[in-house]
Design brief:
alpha+beta; seven-stranded mixed beta sheet; five-stranded antiparallel beta sheet; 2 domains; about 30% helix; BirA Bifunctional Protein, domain 2; SH3 type barrels
């Protein structure tokens, strides 16, 4: 695949809103765009504290962007997508452990609508292609009542980063423009991603769990393979059996079946593929 150069293009918020043209998205959500911010998740949580409403937060760059377990999310200015969608959701109608799965499926489907295929999901929160990380999801929450929560659904997608920029990331990574060998519009990706994620989270309830499990199994980058699971300081080897109805990873080990709510996973020892960490 040939390397390419692309000029710096900022997100066009007016264009995104015009293309969405959905009253519920335009009227019910508070919108915020900043060129530089510490964290879109933190901004969304702050907006909820002041406005008490759903929100969509975008930024060209995060100075304190985080992945899972507090890891830093490296993203140059105006190269990637840094977005958080803040939504109200009842825990009676959904299982919080599946929200990252639902979001990941929605993002893969949004990219497929743009003709970008071959994207897989790596439990619990990564988008990958050819064993390289393309994006990640980080969901944080605030309790409203015993049953209701505000979820800050943050996601980052590498869009126009080149080989040299990706080399600064401490794990193999790729970008949409490298995968397609073309300059990909971040505005176009955001239009599809925002619409798909909002719809998916809004429609998610207990009755949709079997279908979500089936979709994730079809997209699971490591299902059926021997993997290593790092949980705390312990590394456990076994066969990846996919997820259960709670969104937990199921691992068949020499000591029987084990389940994990959060962990790092990679292909098992002896394989050359890279570890993908959230």
């Amino acid at each position: 695949m040939n390397e390419f150069e692309s000029k710096l293009v900022l997100i066009d918020l007016d264009l995104i809103r015009a293309k969405l043209n959905t009253p519920t998205l335009l009227d019910a959500f508070e919108w915020q765009y900043r060129q530089v911010t510490e964290s879109t998740n933190a901004d969304a949580l702050q907006l909820f504290e002041t406005e008490r409403s759903p929100c969509i937060v975008l930024a060209e760059m995060q100075t304190g962007g985080r992945g899972r377990r507090g890891r830093q999310w490296l993203s140059p200015f105006a190269k990637n997508i840094c977005c958080t969608i803040g939504m109200l959701k009842s825990v009676e109608a959904c299982n919080p452990g599946l929200l990252s799965i639902v979001t990941g499926i929605a993002l893969v489907e949004s990219l497929a609508k743009l003709g970008i295929d071959g994207i897989k999901l790596k439990w619990p929160n990564d988008l990958v292609c050819q064993n390289q990380k393309l994006g990640g999801i980080l969901i944080e929450s605030r309790s409203i009542s015993k049953q209701d929560y505000f979820f800050a659904i943050g996601f980052g997608i590498n869009v126009t980063m080149n080989v040299e920029e990706l080399a600064a990331i401490p794990q193999p990574a790729t970008s949409l423009s490298l995968l397609t060998d073309s300059v990909v519009s971040r505005d176009a990706v955001l239009v599809e991603a925002i619409q798909q994620v909002v719809n998916a989270i809004d429609e998610f309830d207990r009755s949709s769990v079997p279908g979500i499990m089936n979709k994730f199994h079809a997209l699971d980058a490591l299902r059926g393979q021997s993997i290593s699971v790092l949980s705390g300081d312990e590394s456990i080897d076994g066969l990846n059996l996919g997820i259960n109805a709670e969104g937990q990873l199921q691992l068949q080990t020499g000591q029987g079946r084990q389940v994990f709510s959060a962990a790092d996973i990679s292909l098992g020892r002896g394989h050359s593929a890279v570890t993908g960490r959230g």
